[in-house]
Each structure stands twice: as C-alpha cells, then as structure tokens.
Amino acid sequence: MDEELLLTRILAGIEGGDDESDYHELVTDLKSLLDTDDDEILNRFYGSLSSMASSFLRCISAAMDSPVESGRLAILASDAYLSLLLSTNCPVFTFFSPIAFLSLLGSIRRYLKRRDDSTGQGSNSQREKGNKKKRGRGKRNLGYEDGEETEEGGFDAKLVFIVLEKLGSVLSFVHLDRFPDSLKSLVQTVSEIPLLVLEYSGVLNYDRLMEMCGKILGGVLNSDHGNMALTAAEISKSLTPLLLMGKHQARSFALGFVSRKLMSLAKDNSILKKVVSNLPKFLVHKAPEKAEPRGFAVEAVLEIVKAMEVEGQSEFVDFVMKMCQGKSNFRVLAVDIIPLLISSLGNPLGVISSENGLNDSWGLGCIDALVQRCSDTSALIRARALSNLAQVVGFLSGDERSRSILKQALGFNGETSEGKGAVTDLLKKRCVDEKAAVRRAALLLVTKLTSLMGGCFDGSILKTMGTSCSDPLISIRKAAISALSEAFRICTDEIVTTEWLHSVPRMIMDNETSIQEECENVFHELVLERILRAGNVLSPDSASLPSNRNTTSKDLDRDIEALFPEGVLVLLRELCNSEVSPWVTKICGSLGKKKRLKPRVALALQCIIKESESLWLSRSMPINRWTAPAGAWFLLSEVSVYLPKSVEWEFLHHHWQLLDKNDVQGLDEQGDEQGVECNSSTWAGDRVCLLQTISNVSLQLPAEPAADLADNLLKKIEKFNLHSAEVDAHVKALKTLCKKKASTSEEADMLVKKWVEQVLSKASKVTEKYIEGVSSNNHSFVTPATLGSRRSKRLDTVSKKLSKAVTAVYTIGSCVIIYPSADTTKIVPFLHTVITSGNSDSKLKNKLPQANVCLKQKAPLLYSQSWLTMAKMCLADGKLAKRYIPLFAQELEKSDCAALRNNLVVAMTDFCVHYTAMIECYIPKITKRLRDPCEVVRRQTFILLSRLLQRDYVKWRGVLFLRFLLSLVDESEKIRRLADFLFGSILKVKAPLLAYNSFVEAIYVLNDCHAHTGHSNPDSKQSRTKDQVFSIRGNDERARSKRMQIYITLLKQMAPEHLLATFAKLCAEILAAASDGMLNIEDVTGQSVLQDTFQILACKEIRLSVSRGASSETADIEEEGGDAATAKGRAITHAVRKGLIQNTIPIFIELKRLLESKNSPLTGSLMDCLRVLLKDYKNEIEEMLVADKQLQKELIYDMQKHEAAKARSMANQGVACGTSHRNGEPEAPAASEENVRDSGLESRVVSAAADVVAAKAARSVLREVNGGAATPPLSAMSVPKLRSSRGVSQSGRPSADVLESLRRRPTFMSDDES
C-alpha cells in the first residue's frame, strides 16, 4: 500500500475514529507504516502527529483498552505503540504518556487472563466455532519461536514475547522516575505475569517468559527510574504472593529473582541492602496461619535468608529470637524457622572459628528459645517446639564437636553423666501433657536424645516412656514403643533392659493389630537377634581360660558376663520375670505360627548353656553347683515348640541327668567350701523348663530313651517330694511321652489312664494317712519331750509328712487336669473333710468324724492346696461344681489368708468361663476382692475380671462397673495404671456409652448417698454397709480429689454429644432434685453429692469447646474442618447449648434461693459454678439476661457479695500471717492497744480492697456476657420507683433512702462475714 495513503488514513482515523473498527484499522495502518524504511515519510508522520499528539494518545489508549477479540486488538495496539516509541527519530517524550502506558500494561493483563473471563457468557460450542473461523481467515503467522502457528482460544504466544521484549527496550530510555504510579503499575503487572500465563504453560516457553520478566524487573532497579530502595520495596511487595505460594514455577521465579538479582545488587548498595534484609521480616508478617501454607512461607523465608550476607543473617536470627516472645502466630513461625536456620546456615554452634578468630555460637540462643517454647501456653507451639528441637538434635548429633556443645546447651554436662539435664524435667511434664500431639512430639525428642546420650537416660524418663506405652491413643503408644526401643537398641544397661521388657512385650495384647506387629518386630530384632549374635560370637576356645581354683562366685559371674556381649545375661534373666514371661510366651507363639522363628535361635541358646557349663568346669567348680544362665532354659522351652528339630537329644539328656542328680540335701557344706551359693529354686525352675523342652521335642526322640525317661518321671512323681511347679511339668511331660510310646491314640489314652489312676491311688493314701495321723495326735495325751533333739526330729518328721501330703494333693489336681475322666469318687470325701474341717456345723461333725480337727490352723498349706485341687476337680466335673461353688464363694468371703483368696479368685473366674450361669449370682462377691487388703489379690481380681468382661463372660451391669471405678484411685500404682488403660483404651471402644449411662449413679454410689427418694432402698440396710466399702465418703480434700479424679476419667471417655447430655442429666436429676426437695441437702452425703455436681459442672472436661468435636489430638492441632458437615454439627451444637443453658439457669436460681434460705455452706460452691457457666456459656446466657434485666441485676449483686467474701477471707488470712511473722511468735492473749489499733486499721483496709476486687470481678464476668459492654450504673437501671416521705430527689438520681434500702438488702452471706 502507498505510504502516502497510509499516512493520510492514519491522520484521518485519529481525527474522527471513535468506533472499534476504526481502532482496528488505525492499529493495522500504524503498524504497516512503522514497518516501512522510508525515513522521509516517517519524519513527515512524526511532524504531523506531533501537532495532534493528544488526539493520537487518546485513540491509541482507547485501542489498548478495547476488549475486542479477547483483548487481541488491545495487545496489537500495544505492540504498535511500543514500535512507535522504538522507531528511529521518534519524539519519545511527545508520544509517551502515563495514561497510555497504564493502558498498555492493562492490555497485557487482560490478554493473559483466562478466556472464560474475557469472552462473555457464550457457550463453549460458540467459542469453539469462533476459534475455527479465526483459524480459517488465513491471518499472518504470529506463532511460536519455531515459526508454526500456535493458537489456543485466540491466544498468540509470539505476540506476548514481542510486546514484553519491546517493553524492556522502551524502559532503557524512557525513565519512570517522574511517573511513580506508572512504575508501580509496571512492577505489579510484571509480577502478575507468572500467574496469569498458567493456562498457557503448554503453548509457550515458560522459562523464556520468566527470563524476560526478570529482565524488566531488573531494569527498573536503576537510579534512572527513581529511588532504588523504594523500587526494590515495591518489587518485594508485589512478589510476596508468589513467594508465599506452594510448589509452583511462579514461586521459583520469584525466589530466583530475589535471591540472585536483588541480593547481587544489594551487596554494593547499603540502602538496598536494608530493604532486602527487611523482606524476610515482611514475609513473616504476611505468612498464613494454616499449617501447609505456613510451611511454604517458612521455606521461602529460609531461601532468602540463605542468600543474604552474614550480617543480614545475624540480624534475622535476632529478629526470630524476638518473635519467640511475640504473639502466638509469630511464635509458631519462629519455632518452625529455627531448625531450618540451624540446618541451613553454617556453623550454628561456633565449632569453626571465623576469620577474625571469634566463635559465633548463635545456634545456642536458638536452641534455648526452642526449649523455652516447649513450655508454651499453646499446645500447638509446644508440639512444634518439641518436634523441631528433636530435628535440631538429630541434625547436630552427626558431628562429634557439635555433640559435646549440644549436651552442654541442653544441660547434659560432664557432671550429670546419668542422663539428668535441664531438659529432663521438661520431658517428664511433656510426656504426660494433656494434648496428644505434645506427648507424641516429646517422645520423638526422647528418641533423638537417646542417640545423643548413647541411651544413658534418667530412670524417671524411662519410666515415663514405659507409662506412655499404655496411652489411650494408638499413635502415642506407637511413638512410645519406638522411643523405648531406640533406647534399648543403643544402650544395653540393666535399667533400660528392664524397663523395655516390662513395657513393650506386653503390648502384644493390644487391641490394635499394627501395635501387635510392631511389638513382634522389635522383640525379634532386639531380643532374638541379640541372642543369636551372642551365640554366634562364642568360639570353641572362648571358655578355655587358665584354671584358677581360688575363683570366687563374683569373679566367675564377672567372667560369664564378659563371655556374653550386649547384656545378654541381663536380658535372659529378665525374660523369666513373672511379669514378663507371659508376654514372652505370647510373642514366641505368634512368631512361631508365622514361621518367623529361626532355628539358629535354639542353637544359640544351647550354645550359651554349653559355654556357661564349660566356663564353670574350667574354673574347677563342682558341676552339681552349676546353673545355666537364668532365663536360657525358659526361652528354649518356648521356642522349641516350633523348632523341635533344632534341639539335640544328647544335649537334653545330658542336662536332664545333671539336674536330676542335683540333691539339695547334704550339699550345703560343700557349697560353702567352694564359695558358691546354692539355689534349689533355680534348679527346680530349670528342671521345669527342661521338661517342657523335652515335651516339645518328644516326637523327635528315639523310642528307647523316651520310654526310660517316662519310667523315671513316673517314679519321681510317685515320691511326692517335687516342687509344685515341677509336678505340672513332670505330669505334662509324662503324658507327652506316653503318646510317643504308644502306636495309636487309644493305646496312648490307656497308658495315661493307667498311670493317672495309679498316681491318684497312692496320693489319696498319703493324704488320708496324714489326716488320720493328725486326728489321732489331736486326742492323744503327749508328754513334752525333755530332749531338744527328740523334739526336733519329731517336728522334722511331721513337716516332711505335711509336705508330702501337700504335694500329693497338688499332684491329684494336676492329674485331673490332664485326664478329666479319672475316677475321683474316693478322693472327693477326704478333700471335703479337709476344706470343711473345723466347721461349726454339727451335722457335718456327725457325718464326718474326721472333721473334728481344724486343719485350717494345724496344716494351712494342706488346707489351701485342697481348695485348689477341689477347684480343678470341679472344672472336670460339672455336677461336682454345682455342689461346691457355694462353698467356694463362702470361703472367698471369709478367708483370712491372702494366698488362698487369690487362688479362690482364680478358681471362681475359671468357673465363670465353664459354668457362666451358675457363677453369675456370685459376681458381686468376686468384685468385693477389688477392695481386698492385699494388693496382689486386688490386682489379680482386676486383671481376671477385665479379661472376662472383654470376652463377654461377664456383662457391665449392676454394681460391677461402679466397683471397678475405685481401681482408678487405688493405692497401688500398678492397679491405677491398669485401670487407666482399661477405661481409656478398652472400655472406650467396647462400651462407649457406659460412662455416660452410669455417671449420675456413680456420683451417688461414690458418696454413699441414700438421701435421694429415687435412690433409697429401705430394705437393704445390710447392702448399704457393704456398699460403703466401694464408696469414698467424706467432705475432706482427699476424698473429694479422689472422686473428682474418677469423674474426670469418665468425662474424658464421652463424645461431645454425651457431654451435653451429661450436663443436662446432672442439672435435671441432681440440682433439680435438690431444689424440689427430693434430695435431702441437710444430709451430709446429700451435700457431698451436690458439691461434687457443682465441681463437675465447673470443670473444664465437661465444657464443650468449639474444637472439642474436631480432633484436637492430631499432629496438626490447628487444622480446620471447613466442610459442610462440620459447620452443620457446630450449628446443632450451638442450638443444643443454647437450649441447655436456658433450662439450667432457672434451676440454679431456684436452688440458690433455697440454699440461701437454709444458710447452707454450699452457696459458695454454687456461686463459683455459676460464675464459670457465665463465662463458658456467655453467648447463650446473653440472650437470656437481655430479656430479664432483673435477673441480671441479682446475679451482679450476689456475685459481687460472694467475691467480696472470698477476697476478704483470703486477705484476712494474709493479715494474720503477716502479723504472726512480724511478732515472730504466736500472739499473746493480751495484745497491746497499739497492735489492736493497727489490726483494726488493716482489717478495714483489707475489707475495702476486697470490696473493690469483688466489684471488679463481678463486672468482668457480666461484661463478657454483655458482649464487652460494662455493667450500667445504678442510676441507669430500670429500678422500681420508691416513694419516700421526703419526696423525689430533684437531681433525678435515686434518693439516699433508696440506696440505703439496697445496701440493707438481705443476702446469703453468713453471720460471721460482717
């Protein structure tokens, strides 16, 4: 087209162009004209255009503001405008305008926005059709850098690059120092581009675009564009949203620009350096509160700080230290930033000297700040501080020099080598924190500190970790197992080993499958693998040391311990502890069923036993005094069940002969000569485990040795001189060997029947003979022996006969257990004779002549053993059980022997499994043993009943649940821990409504209150006496605290809706009953019930906070539940709370009037409870008080009087203490006049101060209720108008008589108050 024609059309379009089509032609013609190379035409154009510059700028600005074609016309106009400014000899300052520049920037933003936002409300099909038409027009190719046409919804990526490139070129000679608004808009637009182009990331080169944006922002950071500090601040502010984003390319661009471009410029510019150093602080203030976005903000801050110089980093560290003392949101950020600073910035502990020779240990201040935040009032901050401190400890523990400094920083210096440091007390508190997230973080810190200290920890911390293994929450139990296992993995000290074995293996009985698996894994790793390694390191020559005949027992023990590394001997010894062995058996059984037990474990245990014996013999010690390492035989007996082929018969045979020949009698002198202690119980225990091992591997034994061993066992059983534990082992082993000896099962049963009947016959004869002897001696006239030796021999003989009879009776029970079909018709009568001996019933004496001897006094062991054997026989015979269960229940109630009561409890619980219907009526008698004077009996009863309840043999009904409650406050710590675990873990899952349904009844029972007409039972005076044992009656502080502890435990098991329902039940069934007269408040127990109710309603556990419904026990406490279900639940909760409190306040008011009329001491408790309710339910009560102003005034007045009385009482106590301290001795009866005058003055001052405090307290409570509005003065209140003889005051204020009448208003205060 002719240039002259273009020039004419452009000038004509500028003069009259007001339509969108005119703008399109103007832009097209202008772009075509600028593409020409004719300088003359361009100069003429510039000259003509200069005279109409304002019109041109108006037209081009309108074109750049045009939304036509999704902003395509606007971006083309911007391209043309920038080309004009860049053209040769163009009068830039004539054609540059801030308004046009702002339009240019706006066109870029609109073009990059999503197509849906700029193309109107047309349908997708219409837009797609329009796009197809555009593609078919055959426009000039403005595609990507590879030359192909690349359009998506009308978007031209090449055009964006062209405009931005030209914009950067224009900024090189157009300085914006005179146009600050344009500069600000430019910075904001370029900072938004990385976010605006997200939709087109697949059709443009994103990296190239970010590079161009960086060049533009870097270009304006020049003094030509104004104050660099202000520009840098504006850029930082504009990039802040990008810096606070999650993982995104735009965030990477912003971080890269700040950390590289800004930092490089700031090195040589002190003003700019100050701006850059303030950027992290600005980001901290802009950081969001939610956990995940806050984490991204912390990462961005750290990246910027890492790029700063040392001086700036030091300044920021000081800023973080100040943040630790600020508001909660800053404290959270500070504890999150500190570990990243320590791990990212160099030399935090000053280990490496700086260039000037100084040690900058800034990290110590950070560690100290974290330790302080571990005790923060906010649970979130405590949890974060503990977990971050654990992260810091884990990071700094890698360097040896840092380890020593870190120990000193945490208080673990050289003097406290036992693991006691400044953090020890902190961990004790945090491991039992009320918030689960804090407890979990504390256990994580303990795990890290274990590595730092090498496992050397204070015993109390280990105990705390052991207690945490019984935490109600699964995650806490897992963390406790992990922490304790880490300590045991690192340290093999006896205290660590003992605590681990007493805490972790018992978790095999946990309800959670994952915890059971974790327990199995750590037991396999830390116990079995350790024993396996100990067996592997033993060499054949390890015990061949020089013989020393003067070796003492202590020297030998020391050599044996040195022979077995990793504390294996301590480990084995604790495995056979009575509190650990049941769990070891369970774990070994579980591992064996899963085929995870390795044969090498059995071989290692055999090797340990052999090496111990070899070392003993190498010291020339008598072999009959040797005992294997404690626990070795026990563990071998457990693993041999699943590894029978791994145990050698020659090994078993050798040690059976060795242990069988050990005769305790007559060896004491020899043992003393050798300096070796003789332990018969150890031999008995080893024989039991050895026999168990033989039973386990009996199917692998040769036939002839098995038969010989069976004959040997039968002979030993028939001697009736074995220990009770050995009897069971011998009987079970003999039964197993009979199966091996017989070819068929019928033949095996015949063999067992034959020897069982033979043993029963001999045992009955031994027992009957002893009973006859005792009866005959009881009637014979015996002259006391004159010689001591004769009497001693006679006593020894009687003792041996008694021991033999006891063993015979025990053997009878063992035989009946393994062969229930045995004939016991001849055994029952003499056992009945024993258990009923000394009975006062004359009928029994006539029927059983032998019962005239009280064997309970003469032979208590035989008496107790007979009950145990009779119980075993009842388990085998249901008819016999039906006859004797009443006798068992009677003896359980009357027996004065703790051991017998313990065995009877075991028997009764076994009966409950086999004969549930028959034993159900005796459950209350069994539960009475929960208050037994013996701790062992109480604990046994609790454990056995808990198992029955879990297996549904016994139901949680009647008095059972209420009697279990007292175990929560038992004198024994072990029982309290078991009760906490039962109520907190098992019961909460199995019977979640039990605590709610029985709560009100528990209050009456624990107070032993029968003053309620609905709870009284006039017929059961005897039952009241029995129930007193299961009550905590009394109004003293100790009794109230125990009851309150039980109430709090029950409240913690309730769901939020049950808490609201419990609140309503307490008000309806106790408070309303008291106000209606159904509960006698003059009775002592009734007063206790009422006082307990006030304390419960005021305690924090029953309050339903907003976060109670959500899980505040998660790791991220601050996570919000913003879904619709949560909002709906909160709305329902608010409505329930509102209705609840509006029904409750009238009950309180009525009860208050009743207590005031009776001048009851409970009025103070009611007012304390009411004050708490006014604060906790202030939103709900506000509506009620707005509707009833008179009630509001009464509450203000009464609460003020109550607070005044409390403050005056406390102040008077302080005055009394101060007077006694001044005198230095108790006050004399006749005080001086001066002292009396001073005392009176102090009392008046104290009283006035108390009134002021009380008024302030009352106003503060009601101010919260009124939404922040202070209580109005009396003159503003709507009080009744009182007419006096003097008339109404002219000032409009109430007269003095009115005020005086209000002062004389009767209150509930006691007489001694004045």
UniProtKB/TrEMBL annotation:
<keyword id="KW-0131">Cell cycle</keyword>
<dbReference type="GO" id="GO:0005634">
    <property type="term" value="C:nucleus"/>
</dbReference>
<comment type="subunit">
    <text>Component of the condensin-2 complex.</text>
</comment>
<dbReference type="GO" id="GO:0000779">
    <property type="term" value="C:condensed chromosome, centromeric region"/>
</dbReference>
<feature type="coiled-coil region">
    <location>
        <begin position="1167"/>
        <end position="1194"/>
    </location>
</feature>
<keyword id="KW-0132">Cell division</keyword>
<keyword id="KW-0498">Mitosis</keyword>
<dbReference type="GO" id="GO:0010032">
    <property type="term" value="P:meiotic chromosome condensation"/>
</dbReference>
<dbReference type="GO" id="GO:0051301">
    <property type="term" value="P:cell division"/>
</dbReference>
<protein>
    <recommendedName>
        <fullName>Condensin-2 complex subunit</fullName>
    </recommendedName>
</protein>
<dbReference type="Pfam" id="PF12717">
    <property type="entry name" value="Cnd1"/>
</dbReference>
<dbReference type="GO" id="GO:0000796">
    <property type="term" value="C:condensin complex"/>
</dbReference>
<feature type="compositionally biased region" description="Basic residues">
    <location>
        <begin position="130"/>
        <end position="140"/>
    </location>
</feature>
<dbReference type="InterPro" id="IPR012371">
    <property type="entry name" value="NCAPD3"/>
</dbReference>
<dbReference type="GO" id="GO:0007076">
    <property type="term" value="P:mitotic chromosome condensation"/>
</dbReference>
<dbReference type="InterPro" id="IPR026971">
    <property type="entry name" value="CND1/NCAPD3"/>
</dbReference>
<feature type="domain" description="Condensin complex subunit 1 C-terminal">
    <location>
        <begin position="900"/>
        <end position="1019"/>
    </location>
</feature>
<keyword id="KW-0226">DNA condensation</keyword>
<feature type="region of interest" description="Disordered">
    <location>
        <begin position="1210"/>
        <end position="1239"/>
    </location>
</feature>
<dbReference type="InterPro" id="IPR016024">
    <property type="entry name" value="ARM-type_fold"/>
</dbReference>
<keyword id="KW-0539">Nucleus</keyword>
<dbReference type="InterPro" id="IPR011989">
    <property type="entry name" value="ARM-like"/>
</dbReference>
<dbReference type="GO" id="GO:0042393">
    <property type="term" value="F:histone binding"/>
</dbReference>
<feature type="region of interest" description="Disordered">
    <location>
        <begin position="1263"/>
        <end position="1314"/>
    </location>
</feature>
<dbReference type="InterPro" id="IPR032682">
    <property type="entry name" value="Cnd1_C"/>
</dbReference>
<keyword id="KW-0175">Coiled coil</keyword>
<feature type="region of interest" description="Disordered">
    <location>
        <begin position="115"/>
        <end position="150"/>
    </location>
</feature>
